[in-house]
Amino acid sequence: MLKFVSRDRETPTKRNPGVRRRDFDEIYAPFARDRAAAQAARCSQCGIPFCQDHCPLGNDIPDWLKLVAEGRLEEAYAVSSATNNMPEVCGRICPQDRLCEGSCVIEQSGHGTVTIGAVEQFITETAWEEGWIKPVKPAVERAESVGIIGAGPAGLAAAEELRKEGFQVKVYDRYDRTGGLLVYGIPNFKLDKHVVGRRTEHLEKSGVEFVRNVDIGKDMAFGEIRAEHDAVLIATGVYKARDLVCPGSGSAGVVAALDYLTASNREGLGDKVDAFDSGELNADGKKVVVIGGGDTAMDCVRTAVRQGATSVTCLYRRDRKNMPGSARETANAEEEGVIFEWLAAPKAVRGDAAKAAGIRVARMELGAPDASGRRAPVEIDGAEFDLEADLVVKALGFEPEDMPALFDAPELKTTAYGTLRVDGETLETALPGVYAAGDIVRGASLVVWAIVDGRKAAAAITERLKDARTRPLAAQ
């Protein structure tokens, strides 16, 4: 250990931009065993592990880095998976530069952080290859059942934790495949779909039952689920896109980011997608402008490049330093030919209702801090310019659906932001025995935070159902 002075930071080999922009394969090669061990040996094993403190899951990062450096990979996986239900997913898509790696002590000392995410992915991929990941077999099967609404990361993490306790678990989802945004929102070049499918199969073999193609509140009443199960977890995520408010925003050719990404992912999975085939949700041969600065915007610009767009531009109203998306993803997009217009905001979509032809853009500057503490963008008078665009993608973030109305459950309480109001300790909603986790509680956030919430809710449900003094939900 402590090799950070003599060994530099090293990442897995990254495919050439000119090659990778022609396909949707993951852009990083797997770490070779010796390189992963060498990188893990750079860990300083500091007395106060800031990497662990800044991991939402509190992963025991120094411990499993030490085990990797010593070649004890099965033990490393045992430590890694003890706090994380999907370490191979987090290793790929977590913004480590803002979390564990950004807090690494040796990074702060100028030696370059340990490549934590890549080592985490290496550990779990090795565990799959070696057959160390076994289906969950609880010591005792319990009669109580839990219904989970939503098969995204929060719902999947909760399902696994509840099965470990022996509860009967049924997961309901509106989509035809399990994984939520992991499948339909994140492109393959960041997270290959077989990675999510493998976890789904693991849960099915562990006894989790999946009910797909069922939209709660439409195809099945929320009350039916409450009647069937002893506890219910709402883990639906947030899918309502924030709209673009400017003249011409309703023109054909202005599309929502999730619609665009879902069409691309479905096409890649072999589905027939009429809107993709017609060109409505396909960037091939088009000038594309993506509005937004988060990870969803980065997914959109990099997808457009791979679909054969003639040009791809990203508009963001603040500067690079204040961009909410991952710095790594922004750099990858630039390598692949994406043009960034910083301090730029749309004023109007040019063209007509039948076809967008471009965007009138206002140049911005950062003014005084707003209520969030961030410096607010302010338009510079007379500093407008035009961009050509055949396809405009709105990647402005997501808001929650009206869950009380959708589920016909006015007893569910919401916050001022429309998210479900829960007890901070247990994640229980205003309805006894009904819990909520993930983005539907905290707003659009990271996959790792959804896993945190799923585990937390599962622990609270377990405590409730094992407490003989608490009446099961189905009996109320």
Q: Could you explain the architecture of this structure?
A:
There is one protein chain. The chain has 476 residues and is an alpha/beta fold. It is 34% helix and 17% strand. A five-stranded parallel β-sheet has the order 3-2-1-4-15, with helices on both faces. The chain has a five-stranded parallel β-sheet with strand order 6-13-7-8-9. β10 and β11 form a beta hairpin. α5 packs across α8, α9 runs parallel beside α19 and α15 runs parallel beside α16. The radius of gyration is 23 Å and the shape is globular. It starts with 16 loop residues before the first helix and ends in a 10-residue tail after the last helix.
Distance between the termini: 57 Å
Radius of gyration: 23 Å
What's the arrangement of strands in the largest beta sheet? 3-2-1-4-15
Q: What's the level 1 CATH class of the largest domain?
A: Alpha Beta
The CATH topology name of the largest domain reads FAD/NAD(P)-binding domain
The pLDDT mean sits at 94
Helix content: 25-40%
User: Which superfamily, in CATH terms, is the homologous superfamily of the largest domain?
Assistant: FAD/NAD(P)-binding domain
Largest sheet, if any? Answer: 5 strands, parallel
**Tally of helical segments:** 19
Structural class: alpha/beta
Overall geometric form: globular
CATH architecture of the largest domain: 3-Layer(bba) Sandwich
GO molecular function: 4 iron, 4 sulfur cluster binding; metal ion binding; oxidoreductase activity
Domain Dihydroprymidine dehydrogenase: 20-131
Organism: Hyphococcus luteus
Domain FAD/NAD(P)-binding: 146-451
